[in-house]
Amino acid sequence: MATLRDIKGRIKGVKSTQQITKAMKMVAAARLRRAQENIINAKPYSKKISEMLQHLLSIEKNFNNPLFVERDIKRVALVVVTSDRGLCGGFNMNIIRKTEEIVQGELAEYKANSNLDLYCIGKKGNDYFTKRPYSVVGSYPGIFSHLKFEFASGLIKELTAKYIAGEIDKVLVVYNEFRSVIQQRTTVEQLFPIKPIEAKTGEPVKELDYIYEPDKVKIIEALLPKQLNAHMWTALLDSYAAELGARMTAMDMATENAKELIRTLNLTYNKVRQASITKEILEIVSGANALKES
Q: pLDDT tens for residues 109-164?
């Protein structure tokens, strides 16, 4: 049976842990607000570029670009976005499980023939896949502490060059999409080849009387890399906000669990203390009775 000193030590330790988890929750909440602002600021830009491309591609029938061409798939690249730190619940394991599900499913043939390349963004995913039989050709740990748009544009530039050169034939991105503080959705998106942007049902695209300068094709070619950069950037922002939301939720649950554990330990401490006092009283009474009899 634990002594009073042991129980007091455990209560002290749990209280210290509770202070840490509470502080981590507050830090995550403060960072989450900034991350949400970044998403709100970035998504209108990405949405507007997509709308412009949708309109131009729907009216320009003579546009040919290798990024849109479907071809025989010989090699696949998988971009896996995880976090740099833990203590965020199932955030990272959800991505890792989804990645392995894809690899063992639709990409099993490419994995078996060593035609699958992984680009691991975030330390947790990089640590996991580099220790296992995967071909990790791109490792990017520690980027979320100083997340910059230049990283997203640089990665898109590298993937685009490899796709055009025929070194890879398909690119998928796996990341957690931020929905709310308590909800993240594991998302798989195809980056290359680019799927045609379809108009919404019941909203046919009308060619308005615009004057295009220099011409539609050149405008599309100029907008396309910007749209890809914006798409990758919003995916990284989504993942970072989802990570903070998951950490905030996990630390809140840990704080509540610590509170409940402290309550249980206090009850145990009081029971042990009461039993100790009762034992001492019985010993005193027994000693007094023994003196009387003698």
A: 999 999 999 999 999 999 999 999 999 999 999 999 889 999 999 999 999 999 99
Is residue 146 in a domain? yes
3-state secondary structure the chain: CCCHHHHHHHHHHHHHHHHHHHHHHHHHHHHHHHHHHHHHHHHHHHHHHHHHHHHHHHHCCCCCCHHHCCCCCCCEEEEEECCCCCCCCCHHHHHHHHHHHHHHCCCHHHHHCCCEEEEEECHHHHHHHHCCCCCEEEEECCCHHHCCHHHHHHHHHHHHHHHHCCCCCEEEEEEEEEEECCEEEEEEEEEECCCCCCCCCCCCCCCCCCCCCCCHHHHHHHHHHHHHHHHHHHHHHHHHHHHHHHHHHHHHHHHHHHHHHHHHHHHHHHHHHHHHHHHHHHHHHHHHHHHHHC
Total structural domains within the chain: 2
Residue 13 belongs to a domain with what CATH number?
1.10.287.80
What residues act catalytically?
88
Using CA atoms, how far apart are residues 92 and 146, in angstroms rounded to an integer?
A: 19
Where do we find the tokens 């995916």? 235
Q: Does residue 220 sit in the same domain as residue 166?
A: yes
Q: What's the pTM?
A: 0.85
Centroid of chain to Cα 155: 18
